[in-house]
Protein: Glucose-methanol-choline oxidoreductase C-terminal domain-containing protein
Organism: Anguilla anguilla
Amino acid sequence: MRNTSTGWLKLQSTNPLEHPIIEPNYMSTDLDVWEFRESVKLSREIFAQHAFDTFRGREVQPGSQIQSDKEIDAFVRQKADSAYHPSCTCKMGQPSDPMAVVDPDTRVLGVENLRVVDASIMPSVVSGNLNAPTIMIAEKAADIIKGLPPLRDHNVPSVPTPHSGDPAVSSHPAYDSILVISNPTDQPLTPQK
């Protein structure tokens, strides 16, 4: 799920030992609630299939007593959380951006000798575990801090995520390509059919 809800975090005081105030604002947009409601309905539809007859027990959450859209929405708003994967709280941007916390080199704006190198500088939540992308952020930041030049561009095309029913995406030539991650030669990479 690519949530559209936005929360906030702010310091309570100048004391670094005092916990910050965190308001995640989970499910604060209609789109997020709708997507979660539809996922509950789809999960129920899948588990109602005959293939699950011998495995199915009673529905634990939200529970069979919760059926209407209004009831499911209330459940979603009460129970949704980040599964301990918060991110995107320290926007990366230029000093002219009033919402930016760090610059493109991970330096905290307005503070000397301080960087943020974690999932908080991600621009949006990834569709998976935060571990690997956070490691990539740390590796890139380490290169920046050490003053290493950026890796050269291998001209590997990005592949759009196919969405069902979108012929413009599923017919994209790169979608049928095998992407090479490493290139031992200096030749530009091109997708092969």
Observations:
- Strands lie at 8-10, 21-23.
- The longest helix spans residues 30-47.
- The two ends are 31 Å apart (CA to CA).
- Residues 163-184 have pLDDT under 50 and may be disordered.
